[in-house]
Amino acid sequence: MSRKKKTHYSGIGGQAVLEGIMMKNKDQYAVAVRKPNGEIEVEVEHYIGVLQGSRLKEIPFIRGVFQFLDSMILGMRSLNFSASFYEDEDAKETVTDKAFHKLFKDKADQALSAIVMVFSLALAIGIFMVLPYFITSRFSEYVRSASFMAILEGVLRIAIFVLYVLSISLMKDIRRLYMYHGAEHKCINCIEKGRPLTVRNVMRSSKQHKRCGTSFMLFVMLVSVVLFFFIRVENPVYRVLIRIALIPVIAGISYEIIRLAGRSNNILVRIISAPGMWLQRLTTKEPDESMVQVAIAAVEAVFDWKSYLYETFGYEIDDSWLVDDEQAEQPAEQPET
Fold first, then answer.
1. 115: left (phi over 0), alpha (psi -120 to 50) or beta
2. How far is CA 39 from CA 19, 146, 176, 274, 294, in A?
3. DSSP 3-state assignment of 330?
4. How does DSSP classify residue 37?
5. In tens digits, what is the pLDDT along the chain, a chain of 337 residues?
6. What is the chain's percent helix, strand, coil content, to nearest 5?
7. Residue 216, burial from CB neighbour count under 10 angstroms (0-12, 13-18, 19+)
8. CA torsion 177→179→181→182, rounded to 10°?
9. Do 212 and 278 meet the contact criterion of CB atoms below 8 Å apart?
10. What is the pTM of this model?
11. CA 260, 201, 43, 92 torsion: positive or negative?
């Protein structure tokens, strides 16, 4: 079978969760988790997103805001499912747990997830959007140039984000999550390069992908630098408020950039994607074969990759090829970058 170098967009995306991976294709998603006993548990569900069916979700620069909200909601659901296999059965119910169950009854878990999501979003806005402004404002007495201050704030914002990514990558549990993140990317790259979805082929694929959420967040930081450079107000309170108010605009623009990156491979796209690909060296780690098996299980639950290869690359997959591919002794090949 000839090697296919050109990447073709597949439409599938995913996320690493606790000892597992979520893969989404259109309105269907699957979460595959390696349970403590070693078995792989797969849950397949349909997800009806925010404003499903609304034309707002089709308008460029607006649809990105809803896509971001959908990804957060779906990510929280997937994470809760994976965490359910690793809960401490001997843990006692706290006063907070009892209050939530009394107040929300059978919706207690969903309510808690919503609160955690809102709190996490508020914390991220505070750290990455508001904090850099307050730090740089301390130098306003010494720096007269408003343009330089805007650039300084942007550089500080990006630095805080990179330091955050670097610091959490040193945690043991996060490193394992990043290994599953790498397995997710490898599976998608394997398919989009036109290779049969086998453990061998996935392991040989790249662990970096242009549609990664890490790249999206970096685009958010870069777009914010540009917008805050040109949109200025004098009142300090208004400065903070406008940074918060522009977040949907920033998310919308960043989504369009990452969407373009996932569908094109021209030189300009490769250049603007390069910083995110570099940052992924921190947020993705090389997985082991057991993690790749979990990723493959998640993909196959929602995506017919054999039909995709036939329709996109023009060849049918014989099941005997899959066996031969796993057993064949081939020279080792470095992952693509």
1. alpha
2. 11, 58, 18, 37, 10
3. coil
4. T
5. 444 457 889 999 999 999 999 999 999 999 999 999 999 999 999 998 877 777 888 899 999 999 999 999 999 999 999 999 987 665 666 776 677 677 777 777 778 788 888 999 999 999 999 999 999 999 888 888 889 999 999 999 999 999 999 999 999 889 999 999 999 999 999 999 999 999 999 999 999 999 999 999 999 999 999 999 998 888 889 999 999 999 999 999 999 999 998 888 888 888 999 999 999 999 999 999 999 999 999 999 999 999 999 999 987 877 666 654 555 434 344 444 4
6. 65, 10, 30
7. buried
8. 170
9. no
10. 0.88
11. negative
Collect all residues with Cβ–Cβ distance below 8 Å to 59 and sequence separation of at least 6: none
Give the orientation angle of helix 172-192 with respect to helix 305-313, to 10 degrees. Answer: 40
β-pair partners for 32 = 21, 42
Per DSSP, the residues of 61-96 read: TTHHHHHHHHHHHHHHHHHHHHHGGG--TTPPPPHH
Tokens representing residue 182 in the block: 């790498």
| Site of tokens 């843990």 | 91
Instruction: For residue 91, count CB atoms less than 10 angstroms from its CB and return exposed for 0-12, middle for 13-18, buried for 19 or more.
Output: exposed
The answer to whether the beta carbons of residues 296 and 202 sit under 8 Å apart is yes
Q: Which amino acid is at 277?
A: M
Residue 125 · residue 247 · CB < 8 Å: yes
Please name every residue paired with 43 in a beta bridge, in sequence order, or none if there are none: 31
Cα 72 to Cα 43, 89, 263, 291, distances in angstroms = 18, 27, 22, 23
User: Which residue(s) pair with 48 in the sheet?
Assistant: none
Strands (E), the chain: 12-17, 20-25, 28-34, 40-46
Hey, what are 276's tokens?
């995110």
